[in-house]
Q: What sequence folds into this?
């Protein structure tokens, strides 16, 4: 398996390509990864088009949920979106927090940042900004955000514990997050685990659901709850790219579950950072 640095470079390269594509192209592949298929579909993306604040130019069809639907935004809040892409969730969040609020998108792909900034300029949004940076070490001060959202991004980061701990750092005491991501119940076949396209496609980087939820608890969050959960079915024509007939039959007969979950959790209002540093 590739190192953490190699995996990050893989994701950056793939998503730089995706930034130059339109939504229809991205939605014809596994989470926009470029995996070929004989059908036009998206195996993960939800429909944003009916949400207030939706901007078609910012929707690349890359998410696996609708975290902004469950984020409980309020007027005037500061919102941070992790892996903000072309700005889709940021622009929807802006609709809720209003002119007096602030929305900050963080992405480590320069091409995505460029596209998002162009979209914000075109829409005339002065209270939405996009920062180039790694979500394991966000370019944002501690205790800055009222709400953090993210859509199908943590599974792309090799060290998920670091990301969750940095979310805790950036949230204000009493703040909360709503994050959609992909998790597993059961083990992926080795052929899928070691496939670069499946990693960039938001599948092989996913961890066990129980481990994911435990990382949230260990980081110090409280009142964690799953707001939405749905099973992800990988179409046969994609699986046939990586599995022979026998392996495919074994895969379909297995108890493996791939799920999109949207998780809500809160940073305690009177809190101590993990390690003993009180807020």
A:
């Amino acid at each position: 398996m590739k190192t953490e640095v190699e995996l990050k470079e893989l994701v950056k390269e793939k998503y730089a390509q995706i930034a130059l594509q339109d939504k229809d192209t991205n939605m014809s592949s596994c989470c926009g990864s470029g995996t070929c298929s004989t059908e036009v579909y998206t195996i993960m993306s939800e429909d944003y088009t009916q949400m207030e604040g939706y901007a078609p130019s910012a929707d690349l069809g890359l998410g696996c949920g609708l975290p902004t639907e469950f984020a409980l935004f309020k007027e005037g809040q500061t919102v941070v979106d992790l892996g903000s892409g072309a700005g889709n969730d940021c622009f929807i969040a802006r609709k809720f927090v209003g002119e007096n609020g602030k929305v900050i998108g963080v992405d480590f792909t320069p091409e995505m940042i460029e596209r998002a900034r162009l979209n914000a300029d075109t829409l005339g949004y002065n209270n939405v900004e996009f920062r180039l940076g790694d979500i394991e070490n966000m370019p944002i001060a501690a205790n800055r955000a009222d709400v953090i959202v993210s859509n199908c991004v943590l599974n792309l980061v090799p060290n998920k514990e670091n990301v969750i701990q940095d979310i805790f750092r950036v949230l204000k005491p009493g703040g909360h997050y709503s994050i959609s991501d992909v998790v597993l119940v059961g083990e992926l076949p080795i052929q899928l685990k070691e496939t670069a396209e499946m990693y960039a496609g938001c599948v092989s980087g996913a961890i066990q659901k129980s481990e994911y939820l435990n990382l949230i608890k260990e980081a110090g969050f409280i009142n964690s709850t799953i707001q939405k959960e749905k099973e992800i079915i990988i179409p046969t024509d994609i699986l046939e790219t990586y599995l022979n007939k026998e392996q495919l039959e074994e895969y379909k007969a297995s108890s493996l579950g791939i799920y999109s979950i949207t998780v809500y959790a809160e940073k305690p209002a009177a809190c101590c950072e993990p390690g003993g540093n009180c807020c």
Notes: The first strand starts at residue 78 and ends at 82. The chain has one domain: 4-266. Strands lie at 78-82, 102-107, 128-132, 145-151, 171-185, 222-231, 257-266.
